[in-house]
Write a structure and sequence with these properties.
With about 300 residues, this protein is an all-alpha fold. Among the domains are: about 45 residues, no CATH class; about 120 residues, no CATH class. Helices cover about 75% and strands about 0% of the residues. β1 and β2 form a beta hairpin.
């Protein structure tokens, strides 16, 4: 699917790199992110390195939803169009449209959820039952909410999405979504009975309670999303710490091996030095003896050279 606002720097498609990153299975996400960020930094692309490093590792379900979007572009586009049509039908209280689209909704969500699970399994990362439910929840959210649809369309979800609490999950149309011909004539204020006034009051109270409940549900959903994002940040930080710990452990191991080798070389050097010193002393003794012998021989020559008598 075509992306908007593609950022290029020095011939490098940073958006393309981020797309590649979010197509990477979660276990390899952090290492690949650090690799791409390091490459950008080494090439002087500091802002690109910052953008890449800021990417957060997706959950397995979010990754599967991202892979589904990129692997099935035609089906994904149709799914987004279905969501727009379904939201419009609820907005206009089109009962017939809601029923027809809701039938498609169940079938397509089920089909796409299975396809996402199959793609994850083929990539070597099968989804648990909970992860498959998160994928289905994400797809339901995409149908129900424009913001969720826009987020999924980027292909860079970090966590699963939750459909709004006020979006019906059944195929039943809202009570107000009745054909115009079947609606009862509106009674005038003067002809209302006390019973009807009481019923109207109860309905207004119920609507107020429903509005408050929807507001509370939306706030709870926002808190949930923030908590999930915080959890993702914590998991990413933990994974980075594990990577740094492993690198430090390897460095310590290498340093210990170098120290062991240096100590062995020092021991050998000390032995060689001791042997050399012993040879030096032996040679010095030999030289002293040779000098003494030379002196004795010289004196003997002098003695014999002296005339007799």
């Amino acid at each position: 699917m075509q992306r908007k606002g593609v950022r290029k720097s020095g011939g490098h498609d940073t958006e393309g790199l981020l797309d590649e990153l979010y197509a990477t299975p979660p276990p390899g996400f952090v290492s690949r992110r650090e690799e791409l960020a390091a490459e950008a930094k080494a090439e002087g692309r500091i802002e690109d390195a910052r953008l890449i490093h800021a990417a957060r590792r997706p959950t397995l379900a979010a990754w599967a939803a991202n892979v589904l979007l990129r692997s099935q572009p035609v089906a994904s586009q149709r799914f987004l169009e279905l969501g727009r049509a379904l939201r419009e039908a609820y907005r206009t209280l089109d009962a017939d449209g809601i029923k027809d689209l809701s039938d498609q909704r169940r079938s397509i969500v089920s089909t796409l959820s299975r396809q996402a699970a199959a793609l994850a399994r083929e990539a070597g990362h099968p989804l648990s039952d909970a992860a498959q439910q998160d994928v289905a929840s994400t797809l339901q959210a995409v149908l129900a909410d424009q913001d969720a649809a826009d987020r999924w369309a980027t292909g860079r979800l970090q966590s699963a999405l939750t459909p709004p609490a006020d979006f019906p999950s059944s195929t039943a149309a809202p009570a107000d979504a009745q054909p115009q011909s079947t609606r009862a004539p509106t009674a005038t204020r003067s002809s209302r009975t006390p019973a009807k006034d009481e019923l109207g009051q109860r309905r207004r109270q119920r609507q107020e309670q429903l509005a408050q409940a929807r507001k509370a549900a939306k706030a709870a959903d926002q808190r949930l999303r923030r908590q999930r994002a915080a959890q993702e940040d914590a998991e990413a930080a933990m994974e980075q710490a594990r990577d740094r710990h492993e690198q430090a452990r390897q460095q310590v191991s290498a340093a210990e091996e170098q120290l062991r080798q240096a100590r062995e070389e020092l021991r050998k050097a000390e032995q060689e030095q001791q042997a050399a010193e012993e040879r030096c002393r032996a040679e010095a003794d030999a030289v002293a003896r040779a000098e003494q012998a030379a002196q004795d021989a010289s004196r003997e020559v002098d003695r014999l050279a002296t005339p007799v008598g």
